[in-house]
Amino acid sequence: MSLQTVARGAMTPLPLEEIQQLSAVFGLVKTDYVEPVDDKKLITDAISGMVASLDPHSQYFDKKSFKEFREGTSGRFVGVGIEITQEDGLIKVVSPIEGSPAFRAGLKPNDLITQIDETAVKGLALNDAVKRMRGEPNTKVTLTIFRKDESRTFPVTITREEIKTQSVKGKVIEPGYAWIRLSQFQERTVDDFVRKIEEIYKQDPNVKGLVLDLRNDPGGLLDAAVAISAAFLPENVTVVTTNGQLAESKSTYKAAPEYYQRRSGGDPLRRLPAAIKSVPMVVLVNEGSASASEIVAGALQDHKRATIMGSQTFGKGSVQTVRPLGPDTGIKLTTARYYTPSGKSIQAKGIVPDVMIDESEEGNVFAALRMREADLDKHLGSGQGEEKKDAAREKAREEARKRLEEEAKKPAADRKAPEFGTDKDFQLVQALNQLKGRPVLVSKTLTERKEEKKEN
Questions:
Q1: Alpha helices per DSSP H over 184-316
Q2: Of the spans 71-75, 323-327, 341-345, 363-367, which averages the highest pLDDT?
Q3: Where is the segment annotated Disordered (predicted)?
Q4: How many CA atoms lie within 13 A of 354 on its CB side?
Q5: Average pLDDT over residues 366-377
Q6: Helix, strand or coil for residue 108?
Q7: What is the mean pLDDT of the chain?
Q8: The predicted structure's pLDDT at residue 38
Q9: With contact defined as beta carbons under 8 Å apart, do 108 and 147 qualify?
Q10: d(Cα 112, Cα 114) in Å, to the nearest integer?
């Protein structure tokens, strides 16, 4: 066997002995396994396992998942319209997308999906679950739902349709004060953001305070995060830096059009009112704010442009680059870490708010149940010194689980979490108090979360 291929950029010969071992295993499976195995499946599974073993965000894309990934960043796809995660081997609903078939069918956050059509979900990879729920428009899929707080299992048949995720919401809450919420950073986010800001200033040209709501925003496209940061920052200041092995991974992104504008259409921020650069601001974040959200919060915090309020963010401070392997397959590979303008790594730590605010008047009852980067298996370290394990984390989770069980016994009307952007949104009320110079109910229990030791 002659192997002249070298690793990209490093000019390191591939390890011949290990490659021969891989080839030997391939041969043994082909000849000795109980039944014939497809060559392509063996190779793609080997690639998938190799990439997935690196960290939770690196991933191999086959033809279908590559198409779905592209749809996800564009903000359009055909499916049922839910954001999902994994919990105890099952698929958990994080949130139904407003107006989607799943939303109309009554699916709720924390619902567990136990079966997709005839396929049991236990042990199914998250990507495989997504594949089974997506499909062609006007086709049906039956989800079997376990709703913990009602202790019941029931089927829901949903008709798939094209989902256009609306990543920007906003309104004038009261004269002089506006709220704008980003639920994701997609290709359309910046244009939608500009339109929403224009609407707000048309309705109230004398905005005295703005709340930028990034709670539960899982992130998305880097250029969209740079653009949203640039909307509020002085021109040419640093928004975020990246560092990795490749020369192209060592980059500085600034608040200037060349760092965020797409190939056509010029600067998408040119229509924004000038007042946006100086309006007093609060940015709301929580444990569900990740990646691109943390870039925006970190940039606005380091440049002292806004007061960051809420709870410490998720801590996904790594950059993923998509490399095509052919016309319709590819890999998403972690290639760098993000650093805020002052040089702090976001990875496995997140952004620490200037003012810690509980999620409700009763405190952060369920915050400990939310996953963070440091909770993920094989998570990447920050690269900035030893990470320390927070021993109180599991105890807090256990207490939160007990509170959740107690909460589930209450009537549905009493336990419904208030929708973001309403007058019952405790954190938003505190953000408005901050902007008005009124007293803020600061958390008595939230403290800065230290980096947690990476488990090998």
A1: 189-203, 222-232, 292-302
A2: 341-345
A3: 377-423
A4: 18
A5: 55
A6: coil
A7: 85
A8: 96
A9: yes
A10: 6
- Tens digit of pLDDT for each residue in 75-107? 677 899 887 877 777 888 877 877 789 989 999
* Rounded distance between C-alpha atoms, residue 329 and residue 65, angstroms: 8
SS3 70: helix
pLDDT tens figures, 306-334: 999 999 998 999 988 889 998 899 999 99
In angstroms, what CA-CA distances link 210 with 407, 432, 439?
33, 8, 17
- Provide CB contacts within 8 A for 312, sequence distance 6+: 287, 349, 350, 351, 352, 353, 446, 448, 449
pLDDT value at position 84? 83
Class of residue 391 by CB neighbours under 10 A (exposed 0-12, middle 13-18, buried 19+):
exposed
DSSP 110: T
Structure-token pair, residue 47 = 């690639």
Both structure tokens of 355: 């003012």
| Residue owning tokens 């900035």 | 384
Q: How many CB atoms lie within 10 A of CB 223?
A: 18
- Contact predicate 158/134, CB 8 Å: no
The CA distances from residue 265 to 191, 236, 268, 332, 454, in Å, are 11, 20, 7, 28, 44
Q: Which 3 state secondary structure label does DSSP give 402?
A: helix
> H/E element holding 395?
helix 392-408
Q: What is the pTM of this model?
A: 0.74
Give the highest mean pLDDT range of 129-133, 165-169, 427-431. Answer: 427-431
Q: What is the pLDDT of residue 398?
A: 62
Whether the per-residue pLDDT at 177 is higher than 60: the answer is yes
Residue at token pair 């190799």 = 50
d(CA 422, CA 426): 9
The encoded tokens of residue 243 equal 């560092």
Q: What is the pLDDT of residue 70?
A: 78
Q: Could you give the CA distance from residue 296 to residue 415 in angstroms, rounded to a whole number?
A: 32
Single-letter amino acid code for the residue at 302: D
Query: So which residues are the catalytic ones?
Result: 291, 302, 316
227-237 burial by CB neighbour count: b if 16+ within 10 A, else e?
Answer: bbbbbbbeeeb
- Residue in this structure with the two tokens 């992104």, named with its chain if needed: 253
Q: Is the pLDDT confidence value at 74 over 80?
A: no
Question: What string of DSSP letters covers 7-64?
Answer: -TTT-PBP-HHHHHHHHHHHHHHHHHSSS---HHHHHHHHHHHHHHTT-TT-EEE-HH
H helix runs in 259-382, sequence order: 292-302
What secondary structure does DSSP assign to 155-182, as a single string?
EEEEE-EEEE---EEEEEEETTEEEEEE
Residue listed under structure tokens 């590979």: 333
The backbone torsions φ and ψ at residue 161, rounded to the nearest 5 degrees and listed phi first, read -150, 170
Distance, in Å, from the CA atom of 217 to the CA atom of 427, rounded to the nearest integer, reads 15
